[in-house]
Amino acid sequence: MSGMIVVGAQWGDEGKGKIVDVFSANADFVVRYQGGANAGHTLVVNGEKTVLHLVPSGILRADTACVIAAGVVVDVEGIVSEIAKIRSNGYLQNPKQLMISESATLILPFHKALDAAREKSLSDDKIGTTGKGIGPAYEDRASRRALVLGDLFDSENLRKKLELCLQEKNQLLKFYGAAEFAVEPLLLQLAKVAQALEPYRCKDVSTIVHKALKNGKRVLFEGAQGTLLDTLHGTYPFVTSSSTIAGSACIGTGVGPTAISKVIGIFKAYTTRVGSGPFPTELNDELGERIRREGHEFGATTGRPRRCGWLDLVAMKYAIRINGITNLSLMKLDILTGFDKIGVCTGYKLDGEVISDFPSHVRDLEKVEPIYEYFQGWKEDLSKVSNLKDLPRNTTNYIDFIGNQLATPIDVISVGPGREQTLWVKPLFA
Ligand code: GDP
Ligand code: IMO
Ligand code: MG
Fold it and tell me: Is 13 an annotated catalytic residue?
């Protein structure tokens, strides 16, 4: 079967949206399987920028069906306005192009209020969440209180479930000194949401995706966030609340692992992180500032400045291992133009000893000192390079070193945000 997963190999914002848009030229389906509107996936087509939060990044191609699967947490306010915006830009004219699983968990306004109230209460220990209600919504799913998309279309049950959920949420909001929510206005709001989402509701996403795979259709699974934000395998507790790694595609969609033939790891030529938590190769100096400036490293969802640093091969090897990455896509190489020296972290020092494995506990990760190798930079503008052989020698030295260290083929090299600024070493999804 020809399922292919696109997964972020760092702390998110690697350029997954761009790659999914590029790959979806050859995909029949694009499936979002986890996360919520904490994601901000940017697509640039003919110079026009589209930022997607919940809708899969295949949506700009009318022939590609887009699916939001059960594992996603759907912000009822966000999804309606996102769809409206996409439609007003001339896309998604046929509602059949987008299917949202009736089993997807809803994010309601009180989840966002609770997210904000918790962050406020943490003062110095904030996670730095996006404030989109992700944690509280996944908690409700796990504790079996969550409302799902299908509930919107069953008004009797909706009231009952909302009352039950809210009873507890209001106690929690009171505990944090935040304003409580009333049932009636929420029910009115949800009636409008139901009307807007009716054309997209889908009773059985798992069956549709399974049939597509069985019939040889090409299905792209679009990850959100990044490996190091995974709730189990990331830099806990500075993580998101879903499983972001490749295995999550099967769980979130309801397909078996045997449906997957490739896992594509997306990574930038350097590293960024938004929010709190350890970041061994962070550059808290003019170099970090310069990467942020040149790379326009500001969050697509919150606008916050992203923390920037050199590429970390210890973290990348870990990502390759836990995702089972088969191929890599190297992004934003053009941003490194003009740097005299480019650093790459090849190992860590922990308590005086050299280690090559990514520590599993943040206590250790906070203490590690990166070991760097430095490469000669290049001056040439890469953004107009359309042929691999036109890449400067120093650039290919850098790419070859990374590929050898990671022992995984780098099949795609991205030199700009646009669709056309993509160099193919080997076709992945032709
Ligand atoms: P995602 O969350 O992984 O989809 O990534 P984001 O969209 O949050 O952030 C990636 C940013 O880099 C976006 O603004 C993209 O338009 C941009 N981008 C993607 N690939 C490249 C590239 O190769 N070069 C440059 N200069 N920008 C890129
Ligand atoms: P995409 O899909 C980068 C980070 C937040 C915070 C932590 C927890 O665009 O790569 P949450 O709101 O999920 O509870 O916040 O996770 N975070 C992201 N960082 N890219 C993302 O998504 C992110 N989604 C969440 O900044 O540190
Ligand atoms: Mg992003």
Answer: yes
Mean pLDDT of the chain: 96
Render pLDDT for 227-255 as a digit per residue (tens, 0 to 9). 999 999 999 999 999 999 999 999 999 99
Q: Which residues have a Cβ under 8 Å from the Cβ of 176 and sit 6 or more positions away? A: 114, 117, 118, 120, 121
Distance CA 219, CA 65 (A): 9
Query: Nearest Cα to 131, choosing from 148, 151, 106, 114?
Result: 114
Distance CA 32, CA 75 (A): 14
d(CA 317, CA 251): 23
| Domains annotated on the chain, with CATH | 3-102+203-424 (3.90.170.10), 106-199 (1.10.300.10)
Cut 0.90: pTM above it: yes
Beta bridge partners of 65: 29
Q: pLDDT confidence of 2, banded at 50, 70, 90?
A: confident
Radius of gyration, alpha carbons of the chain: 21
Above 80 in pLDDT, residue 430?
no
Q: What is the pLDDT, as a whole number, of residue 1?
A: 67
Q: Is 41 considered catalytic here?
A: yes
**Helix residue ranges, H only, 267-392:** 286-294, 313-323, 362-367
CA–CA distance, 380 with 349 (Å, rounded to integer): 34
> Ligand 1 pocket: which residues have CB below 6 Å?
8, 12-18, 40-42, 44, 300, 331-332, 334-335, 414-417
Q: How many whole angstroms from its chain centre is CA 80?
A: 20
Atom 16 (ligand 1): residue with closest C-alpha? 417
> Is it true that the peptide bond before 237 is cis, omega within 30 degrees of 0?
yes
